[in-house]
Amino acid sequence: MTPSQFGLLGYPLGHSFSKSYFEKKFEELALPQYTYHLFEFTDLNNLKEKLSAYPHLKGFNITIPFKQTILPFCDQLSAEAKAIGAVNCIKIENAIWTGYNTDFFGFKQSIKPFLDPTHQMALVLGSGGSSKAVRYALESVGVEVYTVSSSLPASEKVLTYKDLNQHVFNAFKLIVNSTPLGMHPHIDQAPPIPYEYLNATHLCYDLVYNPEETRFLKEAKKQGAIAINGLSMLHLQAEKSWEIWASGTEENNK
């Protein structure tokens, strides 16, 4: 049997469940020739040369901080990846790298059951590659999205953390943390928002899944808000990645 190699590119990767997830999948599917590796690189210098050590590499996932900087390495992009401007899954076929965004699918499917008419406006904390996928997913279902960022200049739909007050929280009932704040091992960290203005009408979603309950979610629950972590999103986007690698075709993300 010809070996097939897959993996995860990012830094750091100590928090990730991806390797164990896919190794379990390969075992369940009786695919002993399939392996999943961690590519924990601090930068993307000489990336293709580094990955040449894996001659049977068929594809890999991308996580923080490379979801946007990986774009120049892609020979082509799916429609969603092009629209979002971020890639978290690459399929390699005939030496051609095709970039996809499965974060969009995973987030959209995982939050759907919790959305109701009160969630017409959302605050997305962070402005990285994950944030772009979240914004694209929410806008695709008619939610108006504002970004909260410590690095982008304030604009019509970009707020700073200093802008957040009771008036803002009264208007925005959906808050999504797309930053890595609170991720293992830095579990005491949390986005600097005024948690005292949250209440039972708010839905708070954290893309972080390790730990299962971040400080962001703990603070939200103290105020009575609905709190959801990113584990379901992880599983959904991983299954979409597997579908892409296994079939070479991407199903309609609806």
How would a crystallographer describe the biggest sheet? 6 strands, mixed
Spatial order of strands in the largest sheet: 2-1-3-5-6-4
Query: How many β-strand stretches?
Result: 12
Q: C-alpha Rg, in Å? A: 18 Å
N-to-C terminal Cα separation, in Å? 35 Å
Order of helices and strands: EHEHEEHEEHEHEEHEEHEH
Helix segment count?
8
Tally the structural domains: 2
Mean pLDDT: 94
- Low-pLDDT segments: 248-254
- What is the annotated CATH architecture of the largest domain? 3-Layer(aba) Sandwich
Helicity level, as a percent range? 25-40%
Strand and helix layout:
Elements (H helix, E strand, L loop, with lengths): L3 E7 L7 H11 L5 E7 L6 H5 L5 E6 L13 E2 L1 H6 L4 E5 L2 E5 L2 H9 L9 E5 L3 H12 L3 E5 L9 E2 L6 H6 L2 E4 L25 E4 L8 H8 L3 E3 L2 H17 L7
Parallel strand pairs: 1-2, 1-3, 4-6, 7-8, 7-10, 8-9, 10-11, 11-12
Antiparallel strand pairs: 3-5, 5-6
Helix pairs in contact: 4-5, 4-8
Plain-language structure description:
This protein has 254 residues and is α/β, with parallel strands linked by helices. It folds into two domains: 4-101 and 237-247, Rossmann fold (3-Layer(aba) Sandwich); 105-232, NAD(P)-binding Rossmann-like Domain (Rossmann fold). Helix content is 29%, strand content 22%. It has helices at residues 18-28, 47-51, 79-84, 103-111, 129-140, 166-171, 215-222, 231-247; strands at 4-10, 34-40, 57-62, 76-77, 89-93, 96-100, 121-125, 144-148, 158-159, 174-177, 203-206, 226-228. β11 (203-206), α7 (215-222) and β12 form a beta-alpha-beta unit. It is elongated.
